[in-house]
Amino acid sequence: MLPSDPSHAGDDQDPLQPFDRLVKTLVEEPDQWALFLDIDGTLIDLAPSPDEIVVPQDLPGHLSSVSQYLGGALALVTGRALPYADELFQPHQFPIAGLHGSERRLADGTLDCVTATEALEEVKNALCVAAGRWPGILIEDKGAAVAAHYRQAPERRAELEEVMQYYLLQAGNDFTLQRGKMVFEIRPARADKGGALEAYLTEPPFKGRRPIAIGDDVTDEAMFKVVNGMNGRSIRVAKNSDGTEARSVIASAALVRDALAGIAEQIAQNDLSQKGRRT
């Protein structure tokens, strides 16, 4: 059976809201779809600093339930480094593309990681020293990448971008400057989130499925472009659809969590019904 086409789930003619239809689609056709989820701003609410985010207690379990129902075809695609992302969802572990796709853990547990170059280590040290002169600027060491957050000092955006452009040159040609929500990041240039999604779709259990990608930032646009080209479903967490390739929008990370909870609840109800029929 061919999977239904949910790509226009936000149309006025559709009697179901986008995430009502997402729940329905995944519950009814779990072997047809692969789910790719950003973390910050998509699964988890943004916070003033990366260390202040709060993971809702039931979120890891809901992700695990949905992943198992999809036969393992659920991956997290994030700007975070793999070890950090793993800490968020303990004790569960999922396929993860970290550092915007520069490093990946496959479904079988195989790791494809990058290490920081000597030049990048020098850049990180220099940025940490310089940040002492920039109140409100937070430097985040991501291992093979480094980010400068200005959420607490938005007035320094232009100045910080110029500084990060300078340090990008010091890091070398193997790196690129990634712009995101209130952050500039020097990261490996070898991959992006779209490339990570494509790589997963060549591997079991993702291979042969249509992708659904959900994200909230400009870094997720690469996923949306890939998904749209594969007749999948792209959803941006945003108030409106301005400036995005995504075909649907959802207003908040809380609604994304509600959808996952709804899927997990429906899965549990289906299991109870099947057990009831066997007894």
TrEMBL record:
Statement: the UniProt record of this protein carries the keyword Nucleotide-binding: no
SUPFAM superfamilies: HAD-like (SSF56784)
Entry cofactors: Mg(2+)
Metabolic or biological pathway, per its Swiss-Prot or TrEMBL entry: Glycan biosynthesis; trehalose biosynthesis
Catalytic activity: alpha,alpha-trehalose 6-phosphate + H2O = alpha,alpha-trehalose + phosphate
EC numbers for this chain: 3.1.3.12
Organism domain of life: Bacteria
UniProt keywords, alphabetically: Hydrolase, Magnesium, Metal-binding
GO molecular function: trehalose-phosphatase activity
Gene3D superfamilies per the UniProt record, alphabetical: HAD superfamily/HAD-like (3.40.50.1000), Trehalose-6-phosphate phosphatase related protein, domain 2 (3.30.70.1020)
General function of this protein: Removes the phosphate from trehalose 6-phosphate to produce free trehalose.
PANTHER family for this protein: TREHALOSE 6-PHOSPHATE PHOSPHATASE (PTHR43768:SF3)
Record protein name field: Trehalose 6-phosphate phosphatase
Protein species of origin: Pseudorhizobium tarimense
